[in-house]
Amino acid sequence: MTHFLPSLPSILFLLAVFSTTTVNLCFADGGFCSVPSVTETEEEQKHLYWKVTNPTLSPDHLRDLPGFTRSVYKTDHALITPESHVFSPIPEWTNALGAYMITPAMGSHFVMYLAKMKENSRAGRPPSGVERFLFVVQGSASLTNASGAIQKLMVDSYAYLPPNYDHELECVESATLIVFERRYASTMDRLPEQIVGSTDEQPLLETPGEVFELRKLLPQTLQYDFNIHIMDFQPGEFLNVKA
Ligand SMILES: *[C@@H]1O[C@H](CO)[C@@H](O)[C@H](O)[C@H]1NC(C)=O
């Protein structure tokens, strides 16, 4: 990734590491042109991950012009910016729209989509044998498991749900989630467990030779067959390692 501009306020990377392949997914501020029309008050009202779902590439009046995109699809990575998201109903979900970003049809062994849950919405279950990871970028949703434990997922919180894990995901007002689903592949005897957490509760990890802040959202044990890395860059910072 070489799209680092000194004017970017902060860049979030979600790095999904799947057993044999590493996929860099970047939800970055867009920035060939700044958007001077946005006042500071408007900026303050925007939620933490506003740029995940809102085009920031061009001035308002150019936003929907064909060809105005920074999206790039390659065999080993993709940068999919908001102007490329196309929302449609998600099978088995109620009152929700999804935009698929990565699918097995593109050669991956996982699916990644944005789910926009509207008022009184409910998620469908993943297919049998498929694990699910949710990350909240806007609003909040509640997760109920088979024991009846209800957990509220706010912005920046996440949940890992093992394959065939009985759960309900519901939303009263609105929520936008990043969802990863994948056919569980580990051959460990011990199955993974449900995990619910928040990014800021995770310890900062050492990144020798690098300046960004690194957090890992899932345990690094073999029964979890993938991990999600959150990499925070300050303005002007970039990866030193050549990918
Ligand atoms: C449901 O979640 C609660 C709280 O995290 C946990 O104690 C309980 O074991 C979970 N139940 C199942 C079936 O995983």
UniProtKB/TrEMBL annotation:
Instruction: List the keywords (alphabetical).
Output: Signal
Signal peptide extent? 1-28
* Gene3D superfamilies registered for this protein in UniProt: Jelly Rolls
Q: Which InterPro entries match?
A: RmlC-like_jellyroll, RmlC_Cupin_sf, UGHY
Q: Name one GO molecular function term.
A: ureidoglycine aminohydrolase activity
Family annotation (PANTHER family):
(S)-UREIDOGLYCINE AMINOHYDROLASE
Return the protein name. Answer: Uncharacterized protein
User: What organism does the UniProt record list as the source?
Assistant: Linum tenue
